[in-house]
Amino acid sequence: MDMLVKKLVLEVRKGNQKAYEELVDLYKDQVYHIAYRMLGNMHEAQDISQEAFLRAYMNIDSYDIDRKFSTWLFRITTNLTIDRIRKRKPDFHLEDPIAGTDGMDHHARFVADMPLPEDQVVQLEQQEWIQKEILALPPKYRAAIVLKYIEDKSLKEISEILNMPVGTVKTRIHRGREALKKRLSSS
Amino acid sequence: MACRKEQSQSIHRYLDEEMDLLEQRQFEEHVRGCESCDKHLSELRRTVAIVQSTSHFKAPDQLTDAVMGSLPKQKQTTRWRN
């Protein structure tokens, strides 16, 4: 896998876009998934994923080929999502009613975004609930929790993706875990 | 209450499997006799299990095309080569 990725990256550097298409296919699910869990919104997740792949392509020459490509790509992705979260209106909150609707809040909008067969509805409700609790975490804890427990990354890889010492990652996971526990126990 | 604060770090180190065997045994023994730590630990485990249960899904089908469409035009040299 790593050899294949390396070969593809070298091809992309030579200007072969077909090779980049293969890289996109290899990583798009993970990139999209991270973006979705961080943002809680499918449109934004797609937007950020596209942007992440474009940036990776434009900066492919600055990528250190001896390191893991996915780590570098996920770093671009999480940086973009955290940036996006910061740029949202400071008072944006999922519980806020949407202007011009009769008490509909942003949660409802996300549900409406995802039409699913009936047998998946119960599961969806559970998923929505977890997603909501994850989105309630401050972004810096959110990233650590998403990478650790949803994407199953090691502490070392998380520290490289988020560009911070392993000790800081641990602290964020501890605090994120405590904050989630508090919310999940009270609901 | 004093216990809670003091042991909170231990609980996380235990969950992250960062204790040596002796420490681990001492901690487990403490938890057996301490209701608040026992509750805290099991709630954290439940929280982690719930978060881990989130389902994975695929990116939208058109994502690859959208990405490829957004890239600057391919370098001339490559087009000749192909």
UniProtKB/TrEMBL annotation, chain A:
SUPFAM superfamilies (alphabetical): Sigma2 domain of RNA polymerase sigma factors, Sigma3 and sigma4 domains of RNA polymerase sigma factors
Transmembrane segments: none
One BP annotation, GO: DNA-templated transcription initiation
Record's protein name: RNA polymerase sigma factor SigW
GO MF terms held by the record: DNA binding; sigma factor activity
Similarity field: Belongs to the sigma-70 factor family. ECF subfamily.
Top-level division of the source organism's lineage: Bacteria
Species assigned in the record: Salisediminibacterium beveridgei
Domain RNA polymerase sigma factor 70 region 4 type per the UniProt entry, residue ranges: 128-180
InterPro entries with a match to the protein in the record: RNA_pol_sigma-70-like, RNA_pol_sigma-70_dom, RNA_pol_sigma-W_bacilli, RNA_pol_sigma70_r2, RNA_pol_sigma70_r4_t2, RNA_pol_sigma_r2, RNA_pol_sigma_r3/r4-like, WH-like_DNA-bd_sf
Domain RNA polymerase sigma-70 region: 23-89
